[in-house]
Structures are given as C-alpha cells and as structure tokens.
C-alpha cells in the first residue's frame, strides 16, 4: 500500500517547508480561533504553482533521485494491483533460486501472462535477502526458463525492470554471469510471443538489458535506463564521482531523452511527486499502458513479432543529419 509520509528528496525541500507552514497556520486557526483563511488560501495557491513548476521541470538528477527513492514501489508492490491469480515460480533448474528476480504466471484482465521482474528490498534485512536487487546468473536463467515456458503455452511476457545492474561478485562471475545475460539477449530476440519490458525504477547496465529485449519498452516518467550509473560515468570520465549530476545530464538516461532517441515506445506518467506517493494510482497508469501495448502486439504473428523486435533494436543508434 502507499506510504503516507514518504521521505523528502532534496529538490522537494521548498515544497515541504511550504506545506509545513500551511499546516501550522491551519492548526493555529483552530486553536486560537483566529481567521487566517485568506493567508492560507494565498499560500495554497503558491504551493500549487510551486508544485507545478517543480514537478514539470525536473532535471535529470532529480529524476535519478526519484528513481532511487527507498519507498518507490517494486515488482511485488505492483503485482497485486496489476494482475490476478499470481503464482510465483522458483529456481533455474540448474543451481538455485535467486530472490533478486521474481517471476510467475498470472492473469492480466483475463489474459494469461508470465510476469518477471527485478526485486529489491525496502529495508536492510530484505535488501540482503534480495541482494539489493542485483541478480546472480541463476536469476537470469530463472527468467529465461519462465520466458521459454511462456512461449510454449503462448503467454505474453511482461518484464518489470528495476536494478542498479547485475551482481559483479566473484561467485556470480564464476557461475557465468556474462554468459547468462548474453543468453537472455539472444533468446529474447527470438521469442515468438509478445514481450513487454517496463522500467519501473533504475534500469542499470546489462543487468537491466537482460530483461529489456522487448517488442515494446516502456518507462515510468521518473525512471532511468543507462549503461552505467551517473556516479560510475563521472568516475571514469572525470575521476570524480561527485560530478554525478553533470554526468546524468550528459548521458541522456531519462525517459524523455530515450523516447526522443527512439529507444522506448512510451512514457508512463507518474503521480505527482513520484510513484511512491500512491502505489494503486500508479499501477492504474501502468495497467493502461500494458493494455495499449497488448492491443498493438496481440494481433501480430510469431514471425511479425520477431521481425518487429529485430527492426526496433537494429534501428537504435542510427542517426541522420
């Protein structure tokens, strides 16, 4: 369920200060029996304008902060609002079960689907359990197993992307991290069913792309999709991670940038202030976008789906004067 008092981000501080002032005046009016309605109305009008200016003119670094918000809804937060009869399936049938990726079968508005998504935690204990949303190779092999199962039973696949990247640890590399990601890219490209990938938070590096080879790639308004984090890019380019804000602007990692470049098909709007303010309402926006994509993709044949996916990714990176 939605959080009632989400943590404040730095660019929201002026809004929070004004809201606090309005609440104080309202409380004072009640206790002191003084009519301050005119002053309160003026401040509320000012707040409305400030909210519009703040949320409609967010800079790339502001969106990075929102995408990383600790209370931002995760895959398991969205599933109850988006799908019916979800049954989680576990394991890659080779090594084990990676809890940084969850997946299973469900129903979307009466249509059977397979749902796969990155899963991070909301607190330290759960983050350790979920490895901070950074999958091991068995996580990607589990995802691929579910995709091939979906293809066998002609179920569309919906992937929810939210990871800083694949886990770079020694054990993950020993078990074939790079091969697992590469295998997913190859196999997803040839799936004979509709594949829909939705970036709901951070879409980082190959860890995100391993679930991102979709016929349609959608992004929430304040999500990011990039080959590396702004801090990582700043460390490489300028030897200073403190320049992450500058890197975020240069990298073109926000949804509006990626839509303009033709990398994604659609931006899913967010509730004012970010998805963490109202999980249910945000899920309704996502549901409408899934339905819109299915209306376009469900009528395509297996070969048409493969061709559409191939042509989409082949066109990325081609620019004309």
From TrEMBL:
NCBIfam families: accA, AccA_sub, PRK05724.1. Keywords: ATP-binding, Cytoplasm, Fatty acid biosynthesis, Fatty acid metabolism, Lipid biosynthesis, Lipid metabolism, Nucleotide-binding, Transferase. GO terms for molecular function: acetyl-CoA carboxylase activity; ATP binding; carboxyl- or carbamoyltransferase activity. Its main location: cytoplasm. Component of the acetyl coenzyme A carboxylase (ACC) complex. First, biotin carboxylase catalyzes the carboxylation of biotin on its carrier protein (BCCP) and then the CO(2) group is transferred by the carboxyltransferase to acetyl-CoA to form malonyl-CoA. Residues 42-296 form the CoA carboxyltransferase C-terminal domain. Belongs to the AccA family. Acetyl-CoA carboxylase is a heterohexamer composed of biotin carboxyl carrier protein (AccB), biotin carboxylase (AccC) and two subunits each of ACCase subunit alpha (AccA) and ACCase subunit beta (AccD). Its EC number is 2.1.3.15. Pathway: Lipid metabolism; malonyl-CoA biosynthesis; malonyl-CoA from acetyl-CoA: step 1/1. This is Acetyl-coenzyme A carboxylase carboxyl transferase subunit alpha. It catalyses: N(6)-carboxybiotinyl-L-lysyl-[protein] + acetyl-CoA = N(6)-biotinyl-L-lysyl-[protein] + malonyl-CoA. GO terms for cellular component: acetyl-CoA carboxylase complex. SUPFAM superfamilies: ClpP/crotonase. GO terms for biological process: fatty acid biosynthetic process; malonyl-CoA biosynthetic process. The gene is accA. Pfam families: ACCA. It is found in: Cytoplasm. InterPro entries: Acetyl_CoA_COase_a_su, ClpP/crotonase-like_dom_sf, COA_CT_C. It comes from Planococcus salinus.
């Amino acid at each position: 369920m939605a959080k009632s008092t989400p943590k404040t981000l730095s660019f929201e501080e002026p809004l929070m200060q004004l809201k606090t002032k309005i609440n104080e005046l309202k409380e004072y009016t009640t206790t002191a029996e003084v009519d301050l309605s005119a002053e309160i109305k003026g401040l509320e009008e000012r707040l409305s304008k400030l909210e519009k200016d703040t949320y409609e003119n967010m800079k790339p670094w502001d969106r990075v902060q929102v995408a990383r918000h600790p209370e931002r809804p995760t895959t398991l937060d969205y599933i109850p609002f988006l799908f019916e009869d979800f049954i989680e399936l576990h394991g890659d049938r080779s090594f084990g079960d990676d809890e940084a990726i969850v997946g299973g079968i469900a129903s979307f508005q009466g249509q059977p689907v397979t749902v796969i998504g990155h899963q991070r935690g909301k607190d330290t204990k759960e983050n350790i359990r979920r490895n901070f949303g950074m999958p091991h190779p068995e996580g990607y092999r589990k995802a691929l197993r579910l995709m091939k199962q979906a293809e066998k039973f002609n179920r569309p696949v919906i992937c929810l992307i939210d990871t800083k990247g694949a886990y770079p640890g020694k054990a993950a590399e020993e078990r074939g991290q790079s091969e697992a990601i590469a295998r997913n890219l190859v196999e997803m490209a040839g799936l004979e069913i509709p594949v829909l990938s939705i970036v709901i938070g951070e879409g980082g590096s190959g860890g995100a792309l391993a679930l991102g080879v979709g016929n349609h790639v959608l992004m929430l308004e304040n999500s990011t999709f990039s080959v590396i984090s702004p801090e990582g890019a700043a460390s490489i380019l300028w030897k200073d991670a403190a320049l992450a804000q500058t890197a975020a602007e240069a990298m073109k990692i926000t949804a509006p940038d990626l839509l303009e470049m033709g990398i994604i098909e659609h931006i899913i709007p967010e509730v004012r202030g970010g998805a963490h303010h109202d999980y249910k309402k945000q899920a309704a926006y996502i549901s409408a976008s899934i339905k819109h994509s299915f209306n376009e993709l469900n009528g395509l044949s297996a070969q048409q789906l493969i061709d559409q996916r191939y042509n989409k990714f082949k066109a990325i990176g081609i620019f004309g004067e």
